[in-house]
């Protein structure tokens, strides 16, 4: 073989080798590129960012068995809230009548007393209390005994009659302070579940201690403490119920909780009647359910995943959502990552969105003030009508049962209307309807001064049902108006305004014992004014629940701009 052939052969082999090496490099590069693409896809899968609403809608369900169980568990606390709020209808009621004592001492059984026994003991509360003011002490006695009510035991009649309003007023004033305390505690420190636990324990304790009150002043102080303690129940119940369901179910779920409030209200006459001669026994009986609930049911309640997220506890929030999804046999993907609002903390102990405040955010402050003014009027009328039941010429137990029964259609009607009507319109019309009904009651007040008036009772019951709808809807409306990091505080402020109105209503009830027409006139006028205020609030039907004030402001601004553009087009 020639040298030229050998050289050519060597060159050809070298070329083939280089070609193969080149192809091999290309193959390796292609494999590396594919591996990088696969890695990129995996990384992308690991960052499936979703917010709480999206996880609930996709994996948990808008409203299913786990959410229903959560709602039922937390709503039991409404029963205690109702019982402790309205117990004074019976414990602080005007006694049914009086009678002259049969005594061996002629001075204690005067002819004046004997001549007025029929009218005094006839059961007309205004007359019976008024007639005894001129009698000598010890010449007469209450028909039900001195231990039947606080008024009978501590002689809260005649020149002392306005003292009878102090315990109930202080109860609602205590609720005002309690709302501020629990609202801050639930948002910034303990969360909703632990705050509910604390409120139930304190409610049971203060209710039991109230039964040992030696005089009106200690009794009033303990009623203040009881009002402070129970105020955390309603706040946490509502928020815990509504924060785990889809947006279209929030209104209805919020209404379902009020069934339990109605149940507590309806249970009172049946507990009070057997204890009608001992008002202290009634307090001792209603102090037991909160204690049982605390140890048996509260541990089964789940913390709000929204609160956990805002507090930077992402892992715990996902665990709660996973448990809810597990009830439907679903499992959250491993690559889900909850979206954290920009103001949320990722540390421990600091408040999410700590630089945000309702009062320093102009739009939120206006919204809160309007909501509080609306709540003041609604609370005044809602609680005032219930406490004013003794001023109707009907059996007290029957009147309370009828009023409590009217709460049931109020919850049903409110829940149905919330599913397809605007919150703003429903709030306004229900409050105005309550006011009109109260004004109509004035017509029958004079006619029913001595005899029972079914038309008055019917109109009063309709007015109370309308007030109950406005009262219930106001909570749902407030939940939807404010974001997670201030929601409990906002609901607590609404509750404070409701309690402030309620704290003034007992004074009007005492006046109503002398002039029922005046009490109904004030109730009616205030309800109508409150109804007109709600038209200044924005509509929230089907709106998302935002997490921070900044997020809500930005997204609502975007929606406003889109709406304006669509209007122009």
UniProtKB/TrEMBL annotation:
Give any Pfam family that matches. Sugar_tr
Residue ranges spanning the membrane: these are: 162-183, 195-216, 258-275, 368-385, 397-418, 425-447, 459-482, 494-512, 518-537
Q: Name one GO cellular component term.
A: membrane
Please provide the record's keywords in A-Z order.
Membrane, Transmembrane, Transmembrane helix
Q: Where is the Major facilitator superfamily (MFS) profile domain?
A: 70-542
Which locations, inside or outside the cell, does it occupy? Membrane
Keyword Protein transport attributed: no
Database matches in InterPro entries: MFS_dom (IPR020846), MFS_sugar_transport-like (IPR005828), MFS_trans_sf (IPR036259)
Major localization listed first in the record, in broad terms = membrane
How this chain sits in the membrane, per its record, is:
Multi-pass membrane protein
Instruction: Write out the GO MF terms.
Output: transmembrane transporter activity
At the top level, the lineage of the source is Eukaryota
Protein name listed in UniProt? Major facilitator superfamily (MFS) profile domain-containing protein
Q: Which organism is it from?
A: Gossypium tomentosum
């Amino acid at each position: 073989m020639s040298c030229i052939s050998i050289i050519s052969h060597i060159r050809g082999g070298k070329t083939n080798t280089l070609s193969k090496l080149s192809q091999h490099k290309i193959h390796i590069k292609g494999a590396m590129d594919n591996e990088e693409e696969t890695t990129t896809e995996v990384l992308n899968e690991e960052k499936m960012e979703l917010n709480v609403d999206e996880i609930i809608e996709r994996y948990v369900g808008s409203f299913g068995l786990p959410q229903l169980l959560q709602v039922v568990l937390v709503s039991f606390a409404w029963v205690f809230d109702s019982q402790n709020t309205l117990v004074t209808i019976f414990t602080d009621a005007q006694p049914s009548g009086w009678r002259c004592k049969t005594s061996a001492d002629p001075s204690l059984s005067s002819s004046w007393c004997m001549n007025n026994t029929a009218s005094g003991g006839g059961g007309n509360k205004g007359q019976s209390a008024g007639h005894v003011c001129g009698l000598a002490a010890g010449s007469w006695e209450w028909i039900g005994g001195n231990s039947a009510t606080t008024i009978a035991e501590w002689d809260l009649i005649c020149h002392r009659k306005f003292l009878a309003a102090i315990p109930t007023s202080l109860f609602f004033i205590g609720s005002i302070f309690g709302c501020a305390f629990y609202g801050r505690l639930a948002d910034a420190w303990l969360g909703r579940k632990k705050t509910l636990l604390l409120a139930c324990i304190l409610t049971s304790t203060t209710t039991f201690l109230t039964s040992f009150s030696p005089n009106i002043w200690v009794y009033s102080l303990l009623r203040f403490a009881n009002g402070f303690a129970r105020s955390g129940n309603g706040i946490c119940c509502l928020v815990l119920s509504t924060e785990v369901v889809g947006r279209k179910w929030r209104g209805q779920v919020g209404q379902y909780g009020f069934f339990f409030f109605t149940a507590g209200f309806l249970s009172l006459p049946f507990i009070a009647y057997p204890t009608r001669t001992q008002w202290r026994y009634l307090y001792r009986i209603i102090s037991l359910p909160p204690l049982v609930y605390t140890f048996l049911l509260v541990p089964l309640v789940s913390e709000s995943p929204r609160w956990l997220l805002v507090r930077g506890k992402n892992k715990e929030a996902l665990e709660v959502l996973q448990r809810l999804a597990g009830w439907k046999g679903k499992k959250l993907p491993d690559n889900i990552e909850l979206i954290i609002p920009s103001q949320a903390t990722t540390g421990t102990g600091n408040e999410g969105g700590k630089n945000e405040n309702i009062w320093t955010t102009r739009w939120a402050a206006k919204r809160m003030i309007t909501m509080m003014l609306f709540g003041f009027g609604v609370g005044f009328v809602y609680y005032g009508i219930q406490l004013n039941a003794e001023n109707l010429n009907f059996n007290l137990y029957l009147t309370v049962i009828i009023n409590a029964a009217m709460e049931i259609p109020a919850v049903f009607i409110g829940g149905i209307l919330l599913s397809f009507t605007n919150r703003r319109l429903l709030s306004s019309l229900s409050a105005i309807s309550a006011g009109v009904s109260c004004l109509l009651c004035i017509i029958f007040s004079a006619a029913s001064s001595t005899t029972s008036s079914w038309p008055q009772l019917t109109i009063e019951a309709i007015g109370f049902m309308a007030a109950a709808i406005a009262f219930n809807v106001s909570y749902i409306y407030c939940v939807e108006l404010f974001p997670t990091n201030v929601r409990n505080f906002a609901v607590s402020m609404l509750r404070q305004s409701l309690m402030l109105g309620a704290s003034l209503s007992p004074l009007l009830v005492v006046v109503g014992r002398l002039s029922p027409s005046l009490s109904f006139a004030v109730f009616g006028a205030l309800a109508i004014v409150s109804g007109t205020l709600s038209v200044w609030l924005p509509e929230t039907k089907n709106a998302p629940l935002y997490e921070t004030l900044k997020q809500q402001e930005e997204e609502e601004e975007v929606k406003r701009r889109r709406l304006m553009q669509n209007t122009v087009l």
